[in-house]
Amino acid sequence: MVKHLYIHVPFCHRICPYCSFYKHTFGDINQSELVESLLKELCYRKNEYDLAIETVYLGGGTPSALSHKNLERLLSGIGEIVKTDDLKEWGIEVNPSTFNYNKASMIKRQGVSRVSLGIQSWNQSTLKTLGRDHSPSDAKKSFEILKSCQFESLSIDLMFSIPGQSLADWEDDLKETIALRPQHISAYNLNYEEDTEFFDRLKKGEFFEDPEKDGDHFSLAMKELINAGYNHYETSNYALKGHQSKHNSSYWEGKDYLGVGPGAFSTVNRKRWRNVPDTKKYIDLLKSNTINMIETEKEIINDDSYRIERIALQLRTSSGLNLDYVKNNLEKVYELESDKLLYNYDNKLHLTEKGKMLADSVIAHLI
Questions:
Q1: Which domain holds residue 230?
Q2: Most CB contacts within 10 A, which of 80, 281, 319, 358?
Q3: What is the per-residue pLDDT across 60-86, written as a single tens digit (0 to 9) for each?
Q4: Number of domains the chain contains
Q5: What is the DSSP annotation of 195-250?
Q6: Does 107 fall in a domain?
Q7: What is the pLDDT of residues 235-250, one digit of tens each?
């Protein structure tokens, strides 16, 4: 039984130089054709799998870049296809300046309960480095629009360790965000991913990775956000009580999920696949009813791969990692406990504050 649904909308008004997700500008792709294709695939998957959806998440790309009419059609179509009686969370990613009050209130009326606003920074220079096309004032206006619609949960996405961003700049970003009091804050360390402009500039020596800077920025985020009353429930995520992301938690817990849309990943019954990362081809295959051909990069998740994923994901959460996943590596566990990087509580391993700073290294030792 599949309880978690992801819908991928690859459209962006412009391509951010750090983003490695499948995305593109509108080009000559018809918005409504993609929307109808998404709904057609969802209908097909509903007939193929036992769906009892509890969480829905629309990501991208920028789902809010869709026109009001097409976004409304997509949301209403999802609501018609998926039985929403058991729905516990319906989330969507939006970017500043891609919606007005009318579009935001429509999103709320369709049943969306959680909105993640991709602000990234309140500093104009940092936004320019990131290739973002909104200003700090645009971001503030967008947040106020969402707040006025009274969604159950509002989340603000931030990034740190960006080229040219000082620790003081990052502290200002944190304080500006805390002052708005969103129910959830995601604070992501910039990673240099392959097939991005930032990665190319890193290889050319224009940008540099700086683990010490990463650590200082991460430590400051922990201090400021925890002191402000946010629960640090996953390495990059902080929430007020009752506002943790249920959808993202399902990934970290290893639950089955269905991904719909070009480039979307799915994992069901230990079978993983990726839909073809080509929007035009995706639409054409669905038009011709050759839906089975949209699945690519198929793999079976064996026990060892599943164990590695659980270590890599669950150890980053406040829920911790079941000790059974590392029972054959207890000597290393004891060593990490001795180094004050891990602690064991009720047969679950948790990262200490020092361990959170070195999470990737700790995980590598356990794997």
A1: 2-252
A2: 358
A3: 999 999 999 999 999 999 999 998 778
A4: 2
A5: TSHHHHHHHTTSS---HHHHHHHHHHHHHHHHHTT-EEEETTEEE-TT-S-HHHHH
A6: yes
A7: 999 999 999 999 999 9
